Backbone:
């Protein structure tokens, strides 16, 4: 039995009121529905509230959410929900959590705050709780917790890690991260992270896919170079599928399309929402006339078009899959198209 299995299989029946309890309602050993809780006596803080998308074994299931029973029973102890960034596996569960648990305040960085407010509006839950904007200078203090924040680089803007002081020591929760020395956006606050390491962290909650793999991923700036080369060489219509939340990648695609005099057509509701919010907040720079409505695709020559859509993982209901099986309302893939994942 390895160390993780040893501790995950152990049930703690007794603990002292002075103990710090750390537990995951989701996201531990899986990719999705990240929901972590830290409790000291009569106070609980929650870090993220995500969903997980079902696999092929869960036919008919739209989303998988954590079991919120413990939070329902102890909701009077909850001091706040703290969001590290705006990906669905970190914020997608918020409407479902708020339906069963009363939470007064959600603390979220700027871009995540905008996405959360849009999500609550779609669920007709606007005003259900306060969504408070935080940054790397924000602080939160309660009877048992003192929380500071630090910048982290990821594929979505405005990502924060948490440094949490408890009566029993310091906890660092990184959120998702990528140490990219030449990022497209802001860099991680290496100085503050290093200082916290020198100061002393008692528990590290590190949450990033493949972070244990040795070596470096390629920088986003190298990805941008490849996108530009493909955009220049392609003669027909370009259909590019990517994660709707990968704002830096979307900005690179849009910038390359504009440079090559291609009109951009956004396909997919989640992609439309993210691009609009990112443009409003200045993370994506483009003019209204750089975009066209899907109904106008047939009015432009194919070499003047770039279609940006969801479906890079082959999701059955995503835009790209529907284009491929000729069930999309506006566009089908035709000979001469170049499809990029």
Residues:
């Amino acid at each position: 039995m390895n160390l993780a299995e040893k501790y995950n299989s152990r049930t703690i029946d007794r603990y002292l009121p002075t103990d710090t309890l750390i537990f995951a309602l989701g996201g531990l050993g899986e990719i999705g529905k990240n929901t972590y809780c830290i409790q000291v006596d009569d106070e609980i803080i929650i870090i993220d509230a995500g969903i997980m998308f079902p696999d092929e074994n869960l036919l008919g299931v739209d989303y998988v959410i954590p079991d919120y029973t413990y939070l329902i029973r102890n909701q009077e102890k909850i001091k706040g929900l703290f969001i590290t960034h705006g990906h669905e596996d970190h914020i997608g569960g918020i409407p479902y959590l708020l339906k069963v648990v009363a939470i007064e305040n959600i603390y979220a960085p700027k871009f995540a705050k905008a996405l959360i407010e849009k999500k609550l509006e779609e669920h007709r839950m606007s005003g259900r709780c306060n969504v408070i904007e935080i940054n790397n200078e924000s602080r939160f203090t309660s009877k048992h917790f003192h929380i500071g924040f630090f910048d982290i680089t990821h594929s979505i803007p405005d990502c924060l890690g948490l440094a949490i002081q408890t009566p029993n020591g310091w906890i660092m929760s990184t959120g998702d991260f990528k140490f990219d020395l030449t990022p497209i956006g802001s860099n991680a606050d290496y100085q503050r992270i290093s200082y916290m390491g020198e100061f002393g962290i008692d528990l590290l909650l590190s949450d990033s896919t493949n972070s244990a793999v040795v070596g470096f991923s390629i920088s986003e700036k190298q990805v941008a170079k490849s996108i530009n080369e493909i955009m220049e060489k392609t003669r027909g219509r370009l259909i590019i599928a990517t994660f709707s939340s990968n704002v830096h990648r979307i900005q690179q695609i849009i910038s390359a399309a504009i440079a090559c005099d291609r009109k951009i057509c956004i396909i997919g509701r989640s992609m439309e929402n993210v691009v609009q919010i990112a443009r409003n907040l200045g993370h994506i720079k483009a003019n209204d006339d750089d975009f066209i409505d899907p109904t106008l695709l047939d009015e432009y020559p194919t070499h003047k078009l770039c279609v940006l859509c969801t479906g890079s993982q082959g999701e059955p209901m995503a835009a790209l899959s529907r284009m491929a099986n000729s069930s999309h309302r506006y566009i089908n893939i035709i000979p001469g198209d170049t499809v990029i994942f």
User: Anything to note?
Assistant: The chain has ten helices and 15 strands. The chain has a mean pLDDT of 87. The CA atoms of residues 11 and 164 lie 25 Å apart.
